[in-house]
Design goal:
15% helix; alpha+beta; 34 strands; 20-stranded mixed β-sheet; Cathepsin D, subunit A, domain 1; 439 residues; 4-stranded antiparallel β-sheet; binds 2-acetamido-2-deoxy-beta-D-glucopyranose; single chain; 7 helices
Length: 439
């Protein structure tokens, strides 16, 4: 009897133990392979917006996406309440990671954004080209995980580094937005931080919807990236190296800082299979960090150095010489009646504009849906704008040109994977299935 009851007791203990370890496994050892964020396009500003949850207790924080932004910054001046906010102390590992060279003091009562012995960085608002100095800190951030098909359970990273911005720095941002989600190529950029917090690959993908009524998507971490009807877009990407600009392209920075922007090596531009004659020196990055081609979610339309812009418009117009032009609508140079262009699966029937990359075989083709802008019911314009004779970057590929294209940024292998227009594959960036699935 005695031995049997002690066996029972042992069984009971081991059962209890396995129940405890099971529930522990459930709550703590779930490791997402990827995270997912819906992206909306703001109707008024055309900014691309995301919402994350931050702080303790968690609150939703609406942010504008800046692909080349160096880090996450949020307004700490107004309404920042959190028991898990931690300023980064001067000389700490966090400050070293950020390569901050400033140690701040604050002469008001301590609060988020105002602490002594804290390192600071320069949060930048690219829409008003303004930056300020702000406290570097960390707090809890929570996002939805994904298996690539659907969003799954919510996961939290306890110490995501960010910079405190100020209320005045929100000028020019969409209504309700309180900061900027910087996805740039920095160790303190959101992609690198989320990858290290959840131990997944340093990769992320952006797929922007062209409509203000439907959501696009950002994935952090590994593929698959599946869009309805069951198309894994990660399977057919074309790859090109990402180029590091040795000089920061941010609004304010320390000497010697590299750029957080994603540059690619456009070697030439072709329209209708003919090379557009242009000064190719402008396509390379010089020692002062001028020139080259980058991708931006801040510019609405692709911006080009005046000489490139003129050459591209001239070549485009020449190819369409049989189609009558209508009066140009600023800021665009070449406009047509939509009736005279016709339409195809990939938008208005115009010749593609081909960005030739590392070889003649590697081409980013911009089709009508991405090259033309509907400016009124029956007028379409070539959606490139003149960036002047001395722009910092010669070609800035803007939001309209990357909508309904999936772009995967692989930081570890420093390469960009791009899908070309998803319209060809009978899907769009608005086709991610956002229905929760516990998988
Ligand atoms: C920072 O230190 C100064 C000088 O010691 C002090 O006057 C000030 O109140 C402190 N500020 C905060 C936010 O603790
Ligand atoms: C090409 O661009 C470079 C860089 O701006 C400039 O120095 C050079 O004079 C230009 N060449 C021609 C032929 O215009
Ligand atoms: C979206 O995902 C859910 C959950 O997996 C699934 O039940 C549903 O059928 C999917 N929707 C479509 C249109 O396939």
């Amino acid at each position: 009897m005695a031995s049997s009851s002690s066996i029972h007791f042992l069984l009971f203990c081991s059962l209890l133990f396995s129940i405890i370890s099971l529930s522990k496994a459930k709550t703590t050892s779930f490791r997402p392979k990827a995270l997912v964020l819906p992206v909306t396009k703001d109707a008024l500003t055309s900014q691309y917006l995301v919402q994350i949850k931050e702080r303790t207790p968690l609150v939703p924080v609406k942010l504008t996406v800046d692909l080349g932004g160096e880090f996450l910054w949020v307004d700490c001046e107004k309404g920042y309440v959190s028991s898990s906010f931690k300023p980064a102390r001067c000389g700490s590992a966090q400050c070293n990671l950020a390569q901050s060279k400033d140690c701040g003091e604050c002469y008001s009562p301590p609060k988020p954004g105002c602490n002594n012995n804290t390192c600071s960085l320069f949060p930048y608002n690219p829409f008003i080209r303004t930056s300020t100095s702000g406290e570097f800190a960390s707090d809890v951030v929570s996002l939805q995980s994904t298996n690539g098909f659907n969003p799954g359970r919510v996961v939290s990273a306890p110490k995501v580094l960010f910079t405190c911005g100020s209320t005045f720095l929100l000028e020019g941002l969409a209504s309700g937005v309180t900061g900027i989600a910087g996805l740039g190529r920095k160790k303190i950029g959101l992609p690198a931080q989320l990858a290290s917090a959840f131990s997944f690959n340093r990769k992320f993908a952006v797929c922007l919807s062209s409509s203000v009524r439907s959501k696009g998507v950002i994935f952090f971490g590994n593929e698959p990236y599946v869009f309805l009807p069951n198309i894994d877009v990660s399977k057919n990407l074309i790859y090109t190296p990402l180029i590091l600009n040795p000089v920061s392209t941010s609004g304010s920075y320390y000497e010697g800082e590299t750029s957080a922007d994603y540059f690619i090596g456009v070697k030439s531009i072709k329209i209708n299979d003919k090379v557009v004659p242009l000064n190719t020196t402008l396509l390379t990055i010089n020692k002062d960090g001028y020139g080259g081609t980058k991708i931006s979610t801040v510019e609405r339309y692709t911006v080009m150095h005046t000489s490139i812009y003129n050459a591209v418009v001239r070549a485009f117009v020449k190819t369409l010489s049989k189609v009558p032009r209508v009066k140009a609508v600023a800021p665009f140079g070449a406009c047509y009646s939509s009736k005279s262009l016709g339409s195809t699966r990939v938008g208005p029937g115009v010749p593609s504009i081909d960005l030739v990359l590392q070889s003649q075989m590697v081409v980013w083709k911009i089709f009508g849906a991405n090259s033309m802008i509907q400016v009124s019911d029956d007028v379409l314009c070539l959606g490139f704008v003149d960036g002047g004779v001395e722009p910092r970057t010669s070609i800035v590929i803007g939001g309209h040109q990357i909508e309904n294209n999936l772009l995967q940024f692989d930081l570890a292998s420093s390469r960009l994977g791009f899908s070309s227009s998803l319209l060809f594959r009978q899907t769009t960036c608005a086709n991610f299935n956002f229905t929760y699935n516990a998988y």
